[in-house]
């Protein structure tokens, strides 16, 4: 796992078995269990093949968007944006808060929550140290908004991709349905961030001395990366298939690096651990679902198509996400919700997107964030993290599901 100051592409993946990180072993173990389920017949081969076909677009998207994000960071785009955020704040701690919230929210919405956890966490911590302000408020802004700001577009969260296929909404109609719940989730997150983390750290940090503008190491690559990211977002908004949009954008940037900085291109850029983890997770969850989990989830969520059913789905999704993980929680919940009950399905999505905050393993983004904070020497007290994050999970999930029920669409 990288520390602050290392280039993001000096990534956490290892090629030697003896140096594999604990998360690498978890991913490999999960995949091995998934394969074992298929080989033993616990999961029929036909069901496994159907699952792999369903998640293939997700895997393509995830692999290419991480490459795009890693190379974008190497090109200096994130560092330049972070410096611009600090400069724009003009020494005001309150303005820095608003800008950091916007920075984390936009990154999550446009490039997905795992990108925020992987790349924005070290940038935010480095920014705090450069400004001489406590790093914990900026770190908490990153992890909370990586989860709660992941509702607006299908690309913002892997669960969204699954749900958008189920409800048949393209990106623009999806955003039209989810913009109000997304706004409510972000506003509640902002309020609790300020009250519990930013406000107590304000003494001695306001005002601060803004840093100089960041100078990209290669202006051509910087502009290429910026153009590739904008192209990716534009492609998503006009309805291009997500794997195609991220693949084309990543290919453009890879080509730029091949010409300008070939040494930055290496196999470690490919997030093999993430791809293996997601594949194994889906196979294992489907197996468990066939042998009792679907029955439990069906009993807890119920079939009420109204407000009570939506609130139950959101609460169960958030609870199971914090006990297990948000991906299997969504998949298990989706399996027991009637095909036409889109509101209840989206409420489940709210629970598994906004709710996975109270435990470090609740979402992959939270797990990555927690590990990167430890690697960077930022000690976030676990008791305080769990207590405040659980409160946010309950308040934000409830309010966001309510917004889904009363909002447009």
TrEMBL record:
InterPro entries: Arsenical_pump_ArsB, Cit_transptr-like_dom
Protein's cellular compartments: Cell membrane
Transmembrane segments: 22-43, 55-83, 95-126, 138-158, 179-198, 225-258, 270-289, 345-370, 382-406
Keywords: Arsenical resistance, Cell membrane, Membrane, Transmembrane, Transmembrane helix, Transport
Topology class, membrane: Multi-pass membrane protein
PANTHER family: TRANSPORTER ARSB-RELATED
Name of the protein described by the UniProt record: SLC13 family permease
